[in-house]
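In the design runs reported in the main text, the only information available to the sequence generator was the tokenized backbone. The following block is the verbatim input for one such run; it is reproduced so that readers can re-run the procedure and compare outputs position by position.
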């Protein structure tokens, strides 16, 4: 499901080509600042049925195309876009993006 946000993230990165954290290096990653990507997809998932998902995937040729793109106008696409619009994105360079990952520490 992560691929579904790629066009949105790519568009965001085009508009914010410099890292928003350090303001120096070129942005290479778009990070979901808030809510997290998992929260976002979970909230969309709650609103769609299995048949919505099957329908969405039905026309997709997995072998011909590398990145999955949700069909324009599909229920899932609309829900995803709605939720994604409310999300805060950040364009980050590699170093800053890595530091967001390091910031998440798991207790053992
Ligand atoms: Zn940076």
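Verbatim output:
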């Amino acid at each position: 499901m992560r691929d579904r946000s790629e066009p949105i993230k790519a568009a965001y990165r085009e508009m914010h080509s410099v890292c928003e954290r350090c303001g120096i290096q070129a942005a290479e990653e778009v990070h979901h600042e808030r809510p997290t990507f998992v929260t976002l997809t979970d909230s969309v998932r709650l609103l769609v049925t299995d048949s919505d998902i099957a329908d969405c995937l039905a026309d997709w040729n997995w072998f011909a195309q590398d990145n999955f793109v949700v069909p324009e106008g599909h229920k899932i696409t609309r829900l995803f876009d709605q939720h994604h619009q409310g999300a805060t994105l950040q364009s980050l360079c590699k170093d800053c993006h890595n530091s967001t990952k390091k910031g998440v520490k798991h207790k053992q």
